[in-house]
Amino acid sequence: MRLKKILAGIAAIFLTIAFTCESRYFSTFAQAVQTTPSPSVAVAPQYDTTHVYVAPQDFDRFVASLIATFGGTTTRQGVFTVTPTPSSTMSQLVMTPAGTVSVFGFKTPVPYPFGSERTGYLVTDVDTAIRAAKATGADVLVAPFADPIGRDAIIQWPGGVNTQLYWHTTAPSYAPLQTVPENRVYVSPERVDAFVSSFLAFSHGSLTSDEARAPGVEIGRPAETYRRVRIESKFGKLTAFVTEGHLPYPYGREMTGYEVANLSGTLTKAKASGVEVLVPLYKTDERESAVVQFPGGYIAEIHSPVQK
């Protein structure tokens, strides 16, 4: 009996030593993974586009209303295959002082998962960007493929946010933006921390605010508060709205928030070009905002900073 106790005690000591060594090893390994910097692959905010899909018959009206609202220029419209499988889409880039938009009007059915990506980020190298994104916890929905002017891929961040990464064979040259738009993403409380950690590591960005009690009027619930996280990087601005998904229309449908100098004046121009105001102008401590819908169905937030 005594021998069994002695042997059991010795076994326990060895197990404790082994567990301690193993724990230290994995702890060291985890720290090494967390502190290993990922390469910076961002270029600049003017190269990061909101992806808008409209019906071909609405294409020209949408582009015209966007230019009438914000000003800017467009590239030449064309018809291309921009997916790794056979398809055909009208395509045009709209470059406004408040943000860049890639417009697609598919003449064929849209192959999955195209249309679910919110933004396209220009990167210095697609393969490097994919490795960096995967290292931070992102998934690859569409592996890199060639398009008429470069290479593309689609990734998904923790929390279900889809982003296209793209690279041009000939480096583009766009004028800097007058104001940088915000990519507006809605994430659950369970996944927001994983999303923020992953995106910060990939973008080499900074957390500019994490407000636990932001005014609920920003998501159509004026009697409540919610958590709001803001990030800035060379990919531009990103705002994460942390909710349980109980959102009145049209919140959650708007993909981008555009900053303008004069919101009232911008809304006047927008309405004159066929834009519908879904949420009339309202004011918080930080900004005046409204939510609008352009011809073709694209929903966006537009705001002006409050002068203090």
**What's the order of the H and E elements?**
HEHEEEEEHEEEEHEEEEHEEE
Estimated radius of gyration: 23 Å
Q: What is the total tally of β strands? A: 17
Principal-axis shape equals globular
Distance between the termini: 80 Å
Strand content: 35-45%
Could you list the spans in which at least 5 consecutive residues all have pLDDT below 50?
1-35
Q: Count of helical segments?
A: 5
The assigned structural class equals alpha+beta
Mean pLDDT score: 90
Biggest sheet features = 9 strands, mixed
Binned, the helix content reads: 25-40%
Quick description:
With 308 residues, the chain is an alpha+beta fold. The protein has 5 helices and 17 strands. The longest helix is centred in the N-terminal third of the chain and has 34 residues, at 2-35.
List the helices and strands and how they pair.
Elements: H1 2-35, E1 49-53, H2 59-70, E2 73-74, E3 78-80, E4 89-96, E5 99-106, E6 119-122, H3 126-135, E7 139-147, E8 150-157, E9 161-168, E10 182-187, H4 192-203, E11 206-215, E12 225-233, E13 236-242, E14 256-259, H5 263-272, E15 276-283, E16 287-293, E17 299-305
Parallel strand pairs: 1-5, 6-9, 10-13, 14-17
Antiparallel strand pairs: 1-6, 2-4, 3-4, 4-5, 7-8, 8-9, 10-14, 11-12, 12-13, 15-16, 16-17
Helix pairs in contact: 2-5, 3-4
Describe the structure.
This protein has helices spanning 2-35, 59-70, 126-135, 192-203, 263-272; strands spanning 49-53, 73-74, 78-80, 89-96, 99-106, 119-122, 139-147, 150-157, 161-168, 182-187, 206-215, 225-233, 236-242, 256-259, 276-283, 287-293, 299-305. The strands form 2 sheets. Strands 1, 2, 3, 4, 5, 6, 7, 8 and 9 form a 9-stranded mixed β-sheet that branches. Strands 11-12-13-10-14-17-16-15 form an 8-stranded mixed β-sheet, covered by helices on one side. It is 25% helix and 37% strand. The protein has 5 helices and 17 strands. Helix 2 runs antiparallel to helix 5 (263-272). The protein is an alpha+beta fold. Residues 1-35 have low confidence and may be disordered. A hairpin with a 2-residue loop joins strand 4 and strand 5 (99-106).
